[in-house]
Design goal:
- The structure is a homodimer.
- With about 150 residues, chain A is mainly alpha-helical.
- Chain A has a single domain, classed as Winged helix-like DNA-binding domain superfamily/Winged helix DNA-binding domain (Arc Repressor Mutant, subunit A).
- In chain A, about 55% of the residues lie in helices and about 5% in strands.
- Chain A contains 6 helices and 2 strands.
- In chain A, helix 4 crosses helix 5.
- At the A-B interface, helix 1, helix 2, helix 5 and helix 6 of A face helix 1, helix 2, helix 5 and helix 6 of B.
- Chain A binds a DNA duplex (30 and 30 nucleotides) through helix 3.
- Chains A, B: It holds the Pfam family Rrf2.
- Chains A, B: This is Rrf2 family transcriptional regulator.
DNA sequence: TGCAACTGTAACCAAGCGGGTTACAGTAAT
DNA sequence: ATTACTGTAACCCGCTTGGTTACAGTTGCA
């Protein structure tokens, strides 16, 4: 099954925050929802996860939402960990109750675990290597081309 | 969300086939289900996917099931591709309809795509690096220790 | 102080997937 | 023919997702 779009929506939201100018007024969940094209509640739920992870600061009422760190200090892995429900190290699910009376059943989990961990770690390292700043710059570059 | 356990069950089944001795009689879906601890139909469904991918040959009736290639020539990536419903390159899902009127909305998909592809490829390379033979040998080694 | 605007959450829904189960038709070896 | 197996359809339940409504809580500001 696919990894939830919560992750990409979260990156989207953070990119909005990273590129938002205070002079443009408040960046509310409704405006973010307009850019993502979803319901404001969906945005608020994701903002709640990002807040819990310490990536953003949300001030209720007309307070606004801000990044807690510089975009260069936020990696996509941070966002991934904040939004994925998957426990760390549990991207793959293994059948839980193989038959212990069978040599294969008894040892399959341990035999697979190493490899699956390595695979998952390889994926996460690629996410760790990209910062929100890079994404924001990439978007800005593309937007400039689109305009010009 | 987690990657379906179909994948690990498929590896389990293939490991059974790789270590099975013909003198031990037919390796039926029911016997495999006994080792995995699930329903025979679940095994048959997975065998169907493995068959379609050309990894096993299943002869109906009392014909038995066999690997189509040597265990050394079957990688876990082959198994992953055979069992995952996820289209190639679609491990991550991206929200489909961002607002084209917003610079971020218009460019987020392209900006994310590169990185997500890289992450997914990194995961798949780790799976490609491990063969069914290695898994079977690992299981045999562990089983020997367990017995001894 | 009271209003307006926003966030935080609970509650509910529909859709889709996963794994389990039953049932039964198809097929091959003996 | 009988027997033993595979192939598949059909159905179920539980879970996750994303969307939606509703409303209480909070804050800035007139």
């Amino acid at each position: 099954m696919q990894i939830s779009s919560r992750f990409s929506v979260a990156v989207h939201v953070l990119a909005l925050l990273a590129t938002h100018r205070p002079t443009d007024g408040l960046l509310t969940s409704e405006r973010m929802a307009g850019s993502v094209n979803t319901n404001p509640v969906v945005i608020r739920r994701i903002l709640g996860q990002l807040k819990k992870a310490g990536l953003v600061e949300v001030r209720p009422a007309s307070g606004g939402t801000f990044l807690s760190r510089q975009p260069a200090a936020i990696s996509l892995l941070d966002v991934y960990r904040a939004t994925e429900v998957v426990e760390a190290g549990q991207l793959f699910s293994i059948h839980e109750q193989p038959n212990p009376a069978c040599p294969v059943g008894r040892n399959i989990q341990a035999a697979l675990n190493k490899t699956l961990q390595r695979a998952q770690t390889a994926l996460e390292q690629q996410l760790a290597a990209v910062s929100l700043q890079q994404v924001a710059l990439d978007i800005a570059a593309k937007a400039a081309v689109g305009v010009g």
